[in-house]
Design brief:
Elements: H1 2-46, H2 49-57, H3 63-74, E1 78-83, E2 88-91, H4 105-112, E3 117-123, E4 127-138, E5 141-150, H5 153-160, E6 165-169, E7 175-178, H6 188-193, H7 200-212, E8 218-220, E9 223-231, E10 238-244, H8 246-359, H9 363-392, E11 399-402, H10 403-413, H11 415-419, E12 424-428, E13 435-438, H12 440-457, E14 465-472, E15 475-482, H13 510-520, E16 524-529, E17 535-542, H14 551-554
Parallel strand pairs: 12-14
Antiparallel strand pairs: 1-2, 1-5, 3-4, 4-5, 6-7, 6-10, 8-9, 9-10, 11-13, 14-15, 15-17, 16-17
Helix pairs in contact: 1-8, 8-9, 10-12, 12-13
Length: 555
C-alpha cells in the first residue's frame, strides 16, 4: 500500500501537472490573441477621418457615440480621445469627459512615438488598466491621442471557475492579473505570504495531507498546492497557476480502497487455506505417529545388525590399511629401481674406461674415471634419500641454483647414453645466470628424466633431434623438445606406473616423480605435442628475487 500510494501519487500528480500546463498554454494563447487584436484598434481609429475632423474643428458632439460603437464592435473595455493638452474630449464613459491625463504614461509615451504604445496602469479600485494609445496626426501635425483599454479582466472571471488560483506577473514580478483580488500589485512571494494564520486543526490536517502527497510547491489558503509556471511571450510576462492535491488524493484513495479490499479478501482466503491445511496436517501427523511406532521397532532390530556390521568393517579397514602400506612399499621399490638405473649404467661405462686406461698404464686419467664413479655413488645416495622424501612428502634443503649449471650437469650425467647414439642436441642458454631456489640434485633429476624420455622417444626417428631451450622472463622456463612421434595420451602422462614403453624398459614413474618435484619447487611441469611433430616438455620455476642473490652468485 505504501508503494502504491507513492507511485500513484507521483503519477497522478504528474498527470495533473501536465493538464495544468496544457490549460496554461490555452490561457496564454487566449491572452496573447486578445492583446494582438487590441493592438490593431488604435491604428484603425487613428485613420478614421471623423475623429481627425472632430479634433481639428473642436466639434465632439457625435464623437463619443462613434467611440461607443467602436468599443462594442471590438469588445474593448473603453475608448478615450484626448486632445494635445491631455484632456478627454470624447470617451465611451461620458463621466470621464474633461478629465486631464496630461501626465499619464499612455499620453506621454504616445506623443513620443509614431507607433502604437502599450502601457499598464495600476488602479486601486478597478485593478490594472491595459491601454494601447496612438498619436493622431493630420498632414504630419499632431492633433490628439486615441487610447483603447483592453478588457483582460474577463479572463480573470473565466479562470476563477476552473483553477484554484491563477496570476499573471509583469517583467517586474508584479501581479497584474489574478483570480485573487488581494494579490493585485504584490509580488508572488508577498502574495503567498499574505495568508491567515491556520488553526491547530488546520495544521494537523495539513501535516497529514503533506505526508500523503508529494512536498507542496506552495501553500494557498492554508493548503498545500502544486505550482505551475509558464512564460508569456509578451514583455516578459509570466503566468502562474496553483492546483490543489484534492483531485490527486481522491483518485489515489479510490485505488487504495480497491487494494485494501483485495488484500482483505486475500487474507480471508489465506486464513481459510491455512486452517484447512492445519486440519490436514493434524490427520497426517496422527498417521505418521502410528508409522513411527512401527518404524521404531524395526530400527531397534537394525541397530543390533549395524553394530555387528561395524565390527566387521573395522576388521576390513585394518586389512585395507595393510594393503595400502604394501602398495606404497612396491611403488618406492619401483622408484628406486628406476632412478638408480642411470647412475649404475654410467658407473659401468666409467669402470670399463678405467680398466682400459689402467691396462694402458694411464693412471691419472683412470683416477678421473674413479672420481666420477665416486660422484655417482654420492648421487645414488642422494637419490635414495630423495625417494624417501618423495614417499613421505618431507622437506628438503633449498639453495640458489643456476639453471644453466643444472642443465650442463644433467648433460654430463647423460654423456654415456648420448655417446652410444647419434643424436643432434641443440642447446640454447642465456648469457646471464638464471637463478632459482631449488634442491640441485632433485632439479638435475627432473632434467635427466626429460632428456631420457626424449632419447627414448627418438629411437625410431631417422634423424633424431633434441632441443634444449632456457629462457627467463616472469618465470624461468626450461623447454625440452624432440622430433619423435609425440604423446598419445596427455591426460595420463603424469600418472604413476603409466608408460608406453615395453615391459622391463620403464616403470612409468619418471614423469610422475618429476611432476611432484616441480610442484615441491613451486613450479609446474607441462607437456604438449608440437605442431611440427614430437613432444614438448616445459618446466616453469619462479625466479630467485634480486634481494636473495649474493654478490658471489652474480659473479
Amino acid at each position: 500500500m505504501w508503494f502504491t500510494n507513492a507511485w500513484l501519487t507521483q503519477r497522478f500528480t504528474e498527470t495533473t501537472r501536465v493538464r495544468t500546463e496544457l490549460r496554461l498554454a490555452l490561457y496564454t494563447g487566449n491572452l496573447i490573441s486578445e492583446l494582438q487584436r487590441m493592438s490593431i484598434v488604435p491604428l484603425l481609429l487613428a485613420r478614421d477621418p471623423a475623429l481627425t475632423r472632430s479634433l481639428s474643428s473642436g466639434d465632439f458632439s457625435e464623437t463619443s457615440a462613434a467611440l461607443i460603437s467602436a468599443r462594442d464592435d471590438v469588445s474593448a473595455a473603453s475608448v478615450r480621445l484626448l486632445d494635445l493638452s491631455g484632456r478627454v474630449v470624447a470617451a465611451t464613459n461620458r463621466n470621464l469627459i474633461g478629465t486631464s491625463y496630461a501626465s499619464a504614461p499612455f499620453f506621454v509615451e504616445a506623443q513620443r512615438s509614431r507607433d502604437t504604445v502599450f502601457t499598464t496602469d495600476s488602479m486601486e479600485s478597478t485593478g490594472t488598466e491595459f491601454n494601447y494609445s496612438r498619436l493622431l496626426t493630420a498632414n504630419g501635425t499632431p492633433l490628439g491621442v486615441i487610447v483603447v483599454e483592453a478588457d483582460l479582466a474577463k479572463f480573470e472571471r473565466a479562470w476563477a471557475g476552473i483553477s484554484d488560483a491563477v496570476a499573471v506577473t509583469n517583467n517586474d514580478n508584479k501581479i497584474i492579473l489574478t483570480t485573487e483580488p488581494r494579490w493585485r500589485g504584490l509580488t508572488m512571494a508577498e502574495a503567498l505570504e499574505a495568508r491567515d494564520a491556520p488553526t491547530a486543526i488546520q495544521r494537523a490536517l495539513q501535516a497529514t495531507a503533506d505526508f500523503a502527497n508529494e512536498p507542496p510547491d506552495a501553500y494557498l489558503g492554508g493548503a498545500g498546492v502544486m505550482q505551475t509556471d509558464t512564460r508569456i511571450p509578451f514583455r516578459g510576462w509570466k503566468m502562474i497557476a496553483f492546483t490543489s492535491y484534492d483531485s490527486v488524493r481522491e483518485r489515489v484513495n479510490a485505488v487504495l480502497a480497491l487494494e485494501i479490499m483485495g488484500f482483505a479478501i486475500f487474507l480471508a482466503l489465506a486464513f481459510y487455506w491455512l486452517s484447512r491445511r492445519a486440519r490436514m496436517q493434524s490427520l497426517a501427523l496422527r498417521q505418521e505417529s502410528k508409522e513411527l511406532r512401527a518404524l521404531n521397532a524395526r530400527l531397534t532390530r537394525e541397530i543390533a545388525e549395524r553394530e555387528k556390521a561395524q565390527k566387521e568393517l573395522a576388521v576390513a579397514e585394518q586389512t585395507l590399511a595393510q594393503s595400502s602400506k604394501l602398495a606404497a612399499l612396491g611403488e618406492m621399490s619401483a622408484s628406486v629401481s628406476h632412478e638408480l638405473n642411470q647412475p649404475l649404467a654410467a658407473m659401468k661405462t666409467y669402470l670399463a674406461g678405467a680398466r682400459l686406461l689402467l691396462q694402458r698404464k694411464r693412471g691419472e686419467e683412470a683416477m678421473t674415471s674413479f672420481q666420477r664413479i665416486d660422484d655417482l655413488i654420492d648421487r645414488m645416495g642422494a637419490i635414495t634419500r630423495q625417494l624417501k622424501s618423495y614417499a613421505r612428502k618431507g622437506g628438503t634443503a633449498f639453495e640458489p641454483v643456476d639453471l644453466r649449471d643444472a642443465v650442463s650437469s644433467a648433460l654430463s650425467m647423460m654423456e654415456p647414453q648420448l655417446k652410444s647414439r647419434t643424436v643432434q642436441i641443440t642447446r640454447t642458454l642465456p648469457r646471464n645466470a638464471v637463478m632459482v631456489t631449488a634442491d640441485r640434485i632433485r632439479l638435475e633429476q627432473v632434467i635427466i628424466n626429460l632428456l631420457r624420455n626424449a632419447l627414448d622417444a627418438t629411437k625410431s626417428t631417422p634423424e633424431p633431434q633434441i632441443e634444449i631451450l632456457l629462457s627467463d622472463g616472469a618465470q624461468a622456463v626450461l623447454t625440452v623438445r624432440d622430433n619423435g612421434p609425440g604423446i598419445a595420451d596427455l591426460e595420463k602422462l603424469f600418472e604413476p606406473f603409466w608408460t608406453t614403453k615395453k615391459p622391463g624398459e620403464g616403470t612409468g614413474l619418471g614423469l610422475a616423480i618429476s611432476s611432484s618435484i616441480a610442484s615441491d619447487l613451486g613450479g609446474r611441469l607441462t607437456a604438449r605435442n608440437a605442431e611440427a611433430g614430437g613432444a614438448v616438455f616445459e618446466l616453469r620455476l619462479p625466479l630467485l628475487s634480486d634481494e636473495t642473490i649474493t654478490d658471489e652468485e652474480r659473479a
